[in-house]
Design a protein that fits this description.
By secondary structure, the protein is of the alpha/beta class. It has 33 helices and 30 strands.
């Protein structure tokens, strides 16, 4: 007759010990290896295989470790946990250690039955991580079963990588380029959104009617929308109600998706309120319909919104959980996030060579004639000419390569049948809209010709432009070379941003070999697919890394604005050069935001803005738009997007003045121009008003739903169960040294160190090669271990979920549990330490508890088994134990031997405690019951606003607990000193 095993109990089968999981039945046991992961789960049939009850073996007095044995074993054990017993089911299984402030959206989400959040944290704070935390937690709890991420096609691969590498979510890309392959594998009548539970979907792809309807019908129960501000439109035409048809289509799609009140929805955007009140209200209406009509001038209205809306600037989270700013009792949990402290910015002018100046003067004269002639022909012809002229002038000041291309290419607006159509076709190519999410194709050099065959005058200008390539006649290129050499000499890895593809390709060609033999250069433009762009960047980083630690090795990336939004480049680059001045300062913010963000190792990011002081355009744009933008940022401490209408008004005025007066007239201040003063005053007022509204809204909508004290409480609980960053660092440092790695710790205050693992056991080398790369391990190269989770290729992060740290912990734990294991064994299950850290005999127990959790959810109850590791300590002999509190028990890990202990005396001492372990069973069970009650309270506290979810919650300890380690600390005077084993 087969026995019935409860969830969490131990059994022996197939030569090893297993934990029984809740999915088991009487005739089939679902088992997880003791200390193993979910990937090792197996099904065993007791009718056909021998299964018997098992007990975890007690430690042996013959296998003594040194003073560090307890700490190493405890950390190795906790690093191996992939399913914690606390309210955050997923934190043990993700490959990123979230900052404390990133837990705020997660806490907000867990208080809602159906999660609806608008996450509007500043650029670079980590909205992707915050959304990933929520998604992983909802999936782990069974609150969601399927996930879709809607994002720009340019960001799809990056989202896929983030979800896979940091959160273990393997999502399928649904793009125009992949849908045919995906649909080919579908069964008859099957939707690809049913076939693939986790998808990342291009917002451009989903615009087609067929795919849009299919998505709505089979939409997952969890949807994340990136750059959500591009999916709504203003109702009022005066506020931009003439938004693109694309925005309208996306808004209609999201309205239908959000209509299902049971669907989880996360909207991400750094710019929720761009001065268009109705668009902001429409965005709130997607979160909850009632939010669209809230009176946000009242405290009650703002409190209601705060339940669903979080918006923080860097200054809000740079230091967090502090006594002074957050009202905590002390700074013991204070967290300082390593954003770059500042951007070093400098405007660098250049002057045209005589030949280039003559070419530009002739181009301006042609443009003047063209506009004058078109004005006599009608409104349509005038608008076509206007956009052609802007394209010509922008290309001319970009580079001779872009100028030549534009002069020989037909204007896109030339095909227009009406003046309005000419504006629709011409404006996106010429402008740098702050809200323009259609960056794909925007870096193509525009055309200036009226027909396919450019006129003789344009062809002559093109020929002259082609002759001006190279530093001899291109002063802008010569100046760039000088700036890049200076940055490289100071150790920087710069990105050079250009407006057009021909300019980027021209620079890559001209700079090749000019910046030093060890400098690698690559160009990334819209000619590459989004995936190829990321591959090109990774290839550049890998080529530079091949130079090893050579201080002369540098990376230089030449890029167009296809990389100015969304793509994270902070791991590889730390300086930005604006080679082409954008006609909207917001585009510069977007470019700089690629490197100036969380994870940037530099404390100061360098920014150089190049401008032509005598080309008639750059100086005026810099004077009016950029200086005003910078002044607002200085005065208010926030960056305010420049309204598109403002930027267009300024640049139109610049071009008009240039056509009327030429380059020489451009020396006059733009604000002194006749006929323009009134319009510039109006623009100044509108922009200042927008800045004040932005400041007011930041104050009005500041996140108040979660108090820092609540975050601090959960941070304490998480660290108690899983450990903190300093514990992981000390573990990795000591374990690698004990495993015969060559460790170099510079002790420079960064906490970083390197390790060569060629001398470590083969099993560890194989495991590290699988995570860091075979070449790195086989060639015994130094592996950097970084205190920041933001790491590059071939590096390891000193966080518990990093795969390399996991490999070290797994080896340490396995070798500790196997007394017959060959080679070095850093951790042991027993130890005796003579130390001045105690005054009476003290014993420390490392105990593993298992809990059977009943977790109610919207989809029904889930039964799970989770583990926790705790330290218990008592003074005196086991029979008369005086138990210590948790803090005093943990403090024993820091105790260091101040004298040697004779080996036989150590065995005698530890033998007393090992023999008395059965007498401690009641105390261990009592502690387990108390711990279960604390966990139960923690689950209820986190979900306190959701009575339906906490009803039926149960946390039951599984007895007996496993005693993994027993360590005795003896006061120095109580043991005779003798030479022998240090214990």
């Amino acid at each position: 007759m087969s026995l019935t095993y409860t969830a969490g109990s131990l059994v022996a089968a197939r030569g090893r010990e297993w934990v029984v999981l809740p999915e088991s039945a009487a005739d089939m046991l679902v088992l997880r290896p003791l200390g193993g992961s979910e990937d090792d789960v197996a099904a065993v049939f007791p009718a056909f295989e021998e299964v018997r009850p098992a007990e975890f073996a007690a430690p042996s007095a013959d296998d003594l470790g040194d003073q560090r044995a307890a700490g190493l074993l405890r950390t190795a054990l906790r690093i191996g946990f992939r399913s914690g017993a606390g309210p955050f089911r997923s934190l043990a299984s993700i490959a990123v250690e979230p900052r404390a402030y990133q837990l705020v959206p997660l806490l907000m989400a867990l208080r809602q039955r159906t999660v609806r959040l608008l996450i509007s944290d500043d650029v670079g704070i980590g909205k992707t991580v915050e959304a990933g935390l929520i998604a992983k937690e909802l999936l782990a709890q069974g609150e969601a079963t399927r996930l879709a991420v809607l994002c720009s096609p340019a960001l799809a691969e990056q989202w896929q990588g983030e979800l896979r590498e940091k959160f273990g979510i393997d999502a399928e890309l649904v793009l125009a380029s992949t849908v045919t392959r995906l649909e080919r594998d579908l069964e008859l009548g099957q939707s690809l959104f049913d076939r693939h539970p986790f998808t990342i979907i291009s917002t451009d792809f989903i615009k087609s009617t067929r795919h849009r309807e299919d998505f709505v019908r089979h939409c997952p129960d969890l949807v994340i929308v990136d750059e959500a501000h591009t999916c709504v439109a203003a109702d009022d035409p005066a506020q931009g109600g003439g938004s693109s048809a694309t925005n309208q289509l996306r808004y209609e799609l999201l309205r239908r998706v959000s209509a299902d009140a049971d669907r989880h929805l996360l909207l991400l955007t750094a710019t929720p309120h761009s001065g268009k009140e109705s668009a902001f209200r429409n965005l709130l209406g997607l979160v909850r319909p009632e939010l669209a009509t809230l009176d946000l001038e009242t405290q009650a209205g703002r409190a209601r919104l705060a339940e669903h809306f979080v918006a923080r600037k860097r200054a809000d989270v740079r230091t967090y959980l502090t006594k002074e700013e957050d009202g905590l009792a002390d700074d013991s949990l204070a967290e300082r996030t390593a954003f770059p402290s500042d951007r070093w910015t400098k405007d660098e002018p250049y002057k045209l060579t005589p030949a280039y100046r003559a070419l530009l003067d002739d181009a301006i004269a042609y443009a003047r004639d063209r506009v004058a002639a078109a004005g006599e022909q009608g409104r349509r012809e005038a608008r076509i000419a206007w956009w052609s002229v802007i394209a010509l002038l922008r290309s001319m000041v970009s580079s001779p390569a872009a100028a030549a291309q534009t002069l020989k290419t037909r204007s896109e607006s030339a095909a227009a049948r009406t003046a309005h159509e000419a504006d629709v076709l011409g404006a996106p190519v010429a402008a740098d809209s702050a809200d323009n999410d259609r960056l794909e194709g925007m870096d193509v050099a525009p055309g200036a010709a009226e027909s396919e065959d450019a006129g003789a005058r344009l062809l002559e200008l093109a020929r002259r432009a082609e002759q001006l390539t190279g530093p001899a006649e291109d002063a802008k290129l010569k100046a760039l070379t000088r700036h890049l050499k200076a940055l490289i000499a100071e150790g920087y890895h710069p990105i050079v941003f250009c407006r057009y593809i021909p300019t980027a390709e021209y620079l890559a060609e001209q700079l090749d070999g000019k910046l030093g033999r060890k400098t690698r250069i690559a160009a990334v433009t819209g000619t590459l697919s989004p995936q190829q762009r990321l591959e090109r960047i990774e290839q550049l980083a890998a080529e530079a890394a091949e130079e090893g630690d050579d201080p002369a090795a540098r990376r230089v990336l030449i890029a167009t604005d296809c990389l100015s939004e969304g793509v994270n480049l902070q791991h590889h680059f730390d300086a930005v050069v604006h080679y082409d001045l954008a006609w909207n300062p917001t585009r510069h913010d977007q470019r700089e935001g690629r490197v100036d963000r969380y994870g940037q190792k530099r404390d100061q990011v360098r920014v150089i803005t190049m401008y032509g002081e005598d080309n008639g355009i750059d100086g005026k744009v810099l004077e009016v738009l950029f200086e005003k933008h910078r002044q607002i940022k200085k005065d208010l401490g926030i960056s305010v997007s420049v309204p598109d209408e403002t930027a267009s008004g300024v640049t139109d005025a610049v071009v008009e003045w240039l056509l009327l007066h030429g380059r020489q007239g451009s020396q006059e201040s733009l604000f002194e121009m006749d006929g323009h003063q009134e319009s510039f005053d109006r623009i100044d007022r509108e922009w200042s008003s927008a800045a004040e509204r932005e400041k007011t809204s930041r104050s009005k909508y500041a996140q108040r739903a979660i108090h820092p004290e609540e975050v601090a409480r959960e941070v304490v609980a998480v660290r108690a169960a899983l450990g903190g960053a300093e514990e992981v660092r000390e573990f990795a440092l000591e374990a690698l040294r004990d495993l015969d790695a060559l460790v170099r710790d510079p002790r420079d205050g960064s906490g970083d160190f390197t390790a060569q693992v060629g001398g470590t056991p083969a099993g560890l080398r194989d495991a590290l090669a699988a995570t860091l790369g075979n070449r790195l391990v086989e060639e015994d190269r130094a592996i950097p271990f970084r205190t920041t989770p933001a790491i590059g290729r071939g590096e390891a992060a000193l966080v518990r979920t990093d795969p390399a740290i996991g490999a070290v912990a797994s080896y340490v734990l396995d070798s500790a549990l196997d007394a017959k294991a060959l080679g070095p064994r850093p951790a042991r299950r027993c130890g005796v330490v003579t130390t001045d850290a105690v005054t009476v005999r003290t014993t420390l127990l490392l105990v593993r508890y298992r809990f059977h959790l009943t977790l109610p959810s919207r989809t029904g109850e889930r039964q799970v088994v989770a583990e926790d590791a705790r330290l218990l300590a008592y003074e005196g002999l086991p029979q008369r134990a005086r138990w210590l509190d948790d803090d005093r028990a943990a403090a024993l890990l820091a105790a260091r031997a101040t004298a040697n202990t004779h080996e036989q005396a150590a065995r005698n001492q530890i033998g007393r405690d090992l023999g008395a372990l059965p007498d401690l069973a009641d105390r261990l069970a009592e502690y387990g019951t108390r711990l279960a009650a604390e966990l139960d309270a923690s689950h209820r506290r986190v979900r306190k606003a959701n009575e339906e979810i906490v009803r039926g919650l149960k946390v039951v300890p599984q007895e007996p607990a496993d005693v993994l380690g027993v360590y005795v600390y003896l006061p120095q005077q109580s043991v005779p000193l003798a030479s022998g084993a240090e214990a």
